Amino acid sequence: MEACLPLMSVRRVAVDLGASSGRVAVGVLVDGRLEFEVVHRFENHPIETSNGLIWDFDKLSAEVITGLSVAGVAGEVASVGVDSWAVDYGLVSDDGDIMADLYCYRHSRTDGILERLTDSERETITSLTGLQLLPFNTLFQLKCAEDDLEGADNQLFLIPDLFHYLLTYRRASEYTNASTTQMLSPVTKQWIPELLEWCGVSESFMPEILQPGTNLGELSWRFKSAQGLANTEVILPATHDTASAVLAVPMEDSGTCAYVSSGTWSLVGVELQEPLMLGNQGWSNEGGAFGTTRLLKNMMGLWILQECARSWDSSDWDALIEASIPFLSSARTFDPDLPKFMAPGLDMPDRVSFEIDETDRGKIVAAILVSLAEKTAMLVREVAQVTGRKIDRIHIVGGGSQNRVLNQLIADRSGMPVVAGPVEATLMGNLLMQFHAAGDLGSDTIRDVVRRSFELTVFEPKP
Asked: Tell me, what CATH number does 136's domain have?
């Protein structure tokens, strides 16, 4: 829960960088519960340049440092960890300089890359990685940047690894985020030499892989003079934001539950103890904390609605959703994963209108919500089939879990109860991994603490 924090408790800090916003939160343990306070919020959007869509690393760095400073002023910080979205990266030179632009995964440079793959390449990449082929995966970003990488003596750092380097000068790649690159084996949990060669980089281009919970040491000298940060350590969370969110899914029996990490994207899946290689069926074996595998599919989340709201210059989501309610039962549906919905643009309502032949805002929003619910329910049924599991409950975490209409639609379309929350699952997973690594949880598991820390909201399917 988010609250005012006791001053004498051990304080740990989570930095959560999202593709549209970022937060810095301070967390403490109180009577076996996690309490946290978000002390700094900021927007994060890619910027359009002559070189295409890139992330503003200087702004992000300044915001992270500001958040850490605010946290330190409020009290001594024992540790910090950073999580973020997946696949995007920066390059660091041998001299320690951060090189070139940080391309956004929505950059057009990977357009058409999957269509250019041969059948043999598709088969090889899928069989080695067990990942869904997505054009923005790091492997394909590097393939499209091959000419720029020739002769470069740099190393690749995914976004949270880049910030951990900024904080400690430690060169490392955290496992859960590395597992999303399409360059890592889910079996050996190491980089795949054949795929590195295929995209034109050497093994030395990739840092060593470390597991969540690894202590990277204290903050570098440049931060130690700040109030409250003199003895702060950097502890790796599950740095892929979805991995941290899944860690905070309050499942009591992961064998009978599916999860949805709901936000700009929706990631629908189950937690396994071993990877399940399914060939070209589109399921991804992404790394989880404690050696688990997140078998999931990426699908479009609330991005389409976000872009429609931006086009309509509307920040009142409640009003938009309320206006859709009369049209939910008769809403026309469409595939939210059509490539046309990937790019940002103020013409997003027109793209949806073309699919449903409607221009009314309420009907557009209804179509988006019902389409997302139907796709989510379809994927839950599919993952139950491919794993042979009897799934009887869906847990939805993340910002999208606040959307009560969408939660109810998913319950209705799937015929299963939907358990909503926690909203701040990523922050909770990040913080609790740090507490776990420091030995602060005792005999409790992370999910024990999560269940104790907030109330569940259950949406029963309606007949």
From this structure: 3.30.420.40
Domain count for the chain, please give it: 2
Length of the chain: 463
Global pTM reads 0.92
SS3 assignment, position 38: strand
Active site positions, annotated: 241
Q: How far is CA 85 from CA 118, 198, 420, 442, in A?
A: 29, 24, 22, 30
Q: Kindly state whether residues 32 and 132 are assigned to the same domain.
A: yes
What are 196-241's pLDDT values in tens digits? 999 989 999 999 999 999 999 999 998 989 999 999 999 999 999 9
Q: Which of 180, 187, 182 is nearest to 198 (CA)?
A: 182
The answer to whether residue 48 is domain-embedded is yes
pLDDT digits (tens, 9 = 90+) for 16-44: 999 889 999 999 999 999 999 999 999 99
Q: Domain span at residue 303?
A: 251-421
Report whether 212 contacts 289 (CB < 8 A).
Answer: yes
Distance CA 33, CA 43 (A): 29
Question: Which one-letter amino acid corresponds to residue 91?
Answer: L
